[in-house]
Amino acid sequence: MDTKPLVAIVILNYNGRHYLEKFLPSVISSTYENKKIIVGDNASTDDSVIWLKTNYPFIEIIQNQKNYGFAKGYNEILKRVNSDYFVLLNSDVEVTAGWIEPVIEVMEKDERIGACQPKILSYADKTKFEYAGAAGGWIDFLGYPFNRGRVFDFCETDTGQYNNTEPVFWASGAALFVKAQLYFSLKGLDEYFFAHQEEIDFCWRMQLAGYVIMVCPKSLVYHVGGGTLPVGKRKVYLNFRNNLVMLYKNWTPNELIWKLPVRFFLDALSAWKALFSGDRLFFIGVLQAHVSFIKWIFSKKKQNVFPVERVGLIYGCYKGSVVYDYFIKNKKTFAEIVKKTQ
After folding, report:
1. Confidence band for 339, pLDDT divided at 50, 70 and 90
2. Crossing angle of helices 233-250/198-208, nearest 10°?
3. Which of 276, 284, 246, 247 is nearest to 262 (CA)?
4. Exposure b/e, 79-102, CB count within 10 A at least 16 = b
5. What is the C-alpha to C-alpha distance for residues 202 and 184, in angstroms, rounded to an integer?
6. Is the pLDDT score of 55 beyond 70?
7. Is 0.85 topped by the overall pTM?
8. Alpha carbon of 100 to those of 29, 217, 263, 340: distances in Å?
């Protein structure tokens, strides 16, 4: 009898047959034995489901009635999955054969570890870190997320500089390992987010509840990135709106009273800069995000704020401003910005 914990690799799919065709074989070749692979389909309108049933009849398919986005899509699917661990895996990720074992080994050693991510490199250039996760997520004091290996749009070359396993602020939703029981006890991903930054919010709540988020670079995957939602006004809107909602939910009242106005100002500055550079859609996306956020504050949807007793230490929070360091002081790498004294 296999005593290793059961790991459910759950791939959320929406019209991603081309990604499944390309990357599913690598997932199937994973060497961890006590696993099951599930494709959760978000009401795809392509032939994803038919193709899966024809070519991989042994893979379990769980179908949602409509496209719920990333957050609710996973919540609905995972309600129907029994496992010790969930791996939320994007369909556009190529995994390496032994990617599961080192993460499970790390998580099994400490019951306080609630979530973990592998090192994520770019599929297009396997020498560089990938935008959505790199070698673990951090956040600055004003709520701007960045990564070990990726700050804003600058992705570093991987030279082994972030190969240590250590606590981080957030783990990427592109390849997120999480203890199943904890996922449900924290009520899963916030469905209001639809997509973008819901995993950061989830990891923040997890830390506040007393758990630790880890990165395990011994585990390696390659991510295409941007495969589900194309770059445009919608993506800008979700990123800015969701970031503000996350901050409102997780900052203390004393932080909110002064940090939120600063964030509004910096967001507006970014929007006007884009407009004067000719990017009208970016400007509109930020404007709509701010209007939507203000409406959310006064709406019933705000009831989705999850009260969490603040018992945990917070790792991976940079006390300075990553915006100032990157744009004013011209520091482009994580190591330049976050000194060992942090």
Report:
1. confident
2. 10
3. 247
4. eebebbbbbbbbbbbbbbeebbbb
5. 11
6. yes
7. yes
8. 11, 11, 38, 29
Side-chain half-sphere CA neighbours of 157 within 13 A: 2
Query: Is 50 exceeded by the pLDDT of residue 341?
Result: no
Largest CA distance in the chain: 65
Taking alpha carbons only, the member of 35, 74, 13, 291 closest to residue 202 is 74
**Residue entry with tokens 């959760």:** 40
Tally the C-alpha atoms within 13 A of residue 31's C-alpha that lie toward its C-beta.
8
In this predicted model, what pLDDT tens digit does every residue of 161-192 receive, in sequence order?
999 999 999 999 999 999 999 999 999 999 99
Q: Among candidates 227, 226, 176, which has minimal Cα distance to 198?
A: 176
Residue 3 pLDDT level (bands cut at 50, 70, 90) = confident
**Whole-number pLDDT of residue 232:** 74
Q: How far is CA 114 from CA 33, 195, 222, 258, 277, in A?
A: 22, 21, 23, 31, 43
For residues 100 and 324, give the distance between their C-alpha atoms in angstroms, rounded to a whole number: 37
Sign of CA dihedral 176, 179, 180, 186: negative
